[in-house]
Structures are given as structure tokens and as C-alpha cells.
Amino acid sequence: MAEGVHLNMDMLLNAIRHYIPLSSDDEAVVRSLFRVEKLKKGQHLLQAGNICKNIFFIEQGLVRYYAIIDGEEKTSYFNKEGEFVCDYASFLPQTPSIINIQALEACTVYFISHSNMQLFYERVKYGERFGRLGLEDVYVNLINQVNSLYNDPPERRYQIFLTKFPDTGQRIPQYYIASYIGIKPQSLSRIRKRMAEKN
Fold it and tell me: Mapped to the 3 state alphabet, what secondary structure does the chain carry?
């Protein structure tokens, strides 16, 4: 079983290597600081009002970010296998979150606490660079998403969604996709029909 855990953590190590090189000593630090957890479908990694205490990495599964605005759930993002999950606006200052992060499928995640993340920065040679580059990615994604929501018509936003989540579209319920794009499910059905007719 221990060997399986090590094999699984390779996906996490490769995701970190996407940003920084890791020595064997660095790998040992990563293995010591991250923990593993299994989540059931529908379970929350974070609920609004709570402080985001961990950064998660998805080994298997899919999550969505959403807020409740005027009594209605508004989906703002999705993360899948091989991606990091966190509400950095809550995690960095350790203040209550305004968003929820929910498992759309049964998930296996690795997570690192806020205090262990500080140890990661200290003990991994390029740890601080990893933090900076990771946050830059999050920031660019967020700006692009906000710009698209304000400037692109719904059909264009759906095309961007398909490009961004090509292999997960089938795994996400249509009403969450519609919410993410900022339209009603009926409008999404019409867009999909028009696109199917064009093709």
C-alpha cells in the first residue's frame, strides 16, 4: 500500500516540477508535508464563512467553486486531476472565505496546511518561487475569466469553457456549466444546438 501512495504522489511532484526543479531532498520534504484525504461526491473542501486552511491537489476527481448570491448558487470555476485547489483570497491572509469548494465526484486529494506551506517555502530550495509562479497563474486565470464574463457573448464563453475543460465537460452537470458561463440552462441548450447544427 505504501508503494501505491508513493506512486500516487508522483502526480503531485510532477505538478510542482512544472514550476520548479526538485532535488531528492526536496521530494522528501514534499512527501512529509502533504497529507492525503478521500472525499465523497457532494462533500465540501471549503464552506463559505470558514477560513481556507489548506491548499489541495487533486489526484483523482473534480471540484467546483461557487458562491451563493441573492439565494442562488453561482459557479465560478472548476478544477480536475493534476490541479491545485484553494481560495487564495482566504488562505493567504487566513480570513473567512466567501466561496464554497465542493467535490462533484468522489475525490482523492493531497493537502498541505497553511503552517506546513510556510515550512515548504523554507525547506524546499525553490519553494518561494513555486508560490509566486503558482499565484501568478491563478491571477492570470482570474483576470481572463472576469474579462470574458464582461466582454464576451455567451456562445464565446461556452467555446472558451470547452477549450479550457475539453475532457471534463461530460463530467459536469449542464446547470453548473450554464452558471459558470453566466446564463440559464435553457440558453446553454440553445447554444449547444446552434453549435451542433454548424458542425
Answer: CHHHHHHHHHHHHHHHHCCCCCCHHHHHHHHHHCEEEEECCCCEEECCCCECCEEEEEEECEEEEEEEECCEEEEEEEEECCCEECCHHHHCCCCECCCEEEECCCEEEEEEEHHHHHHHHHHCCCHHHHHHHHHHHHHHHHHHHHHHHHHCCHHHHHHHHHHHCCCCHHHCCHHHHHHHHCCCHHHHHHHHHHHHHHC
Q: Is the dihedral angle over the CA atoms 93, 46, 88, 5 positive or is it negative?
A: positive
Other CB atoms within 10 A of residue 40 CB: 9
Q: CA-to-CA distance for 49 and 71, rounded, in angstroms? A: 15
What are the distances in angstroms from CA 180 to CA 2, 92, 108, 162?
A: 39, 25, 24, 12
Tell me the per-residue pLDDT of 92-106, one tens digit each, with 9 for 90 and over.
999 999 999 999 999
Pick out the chain residues at pLDDT < 70.
1-8
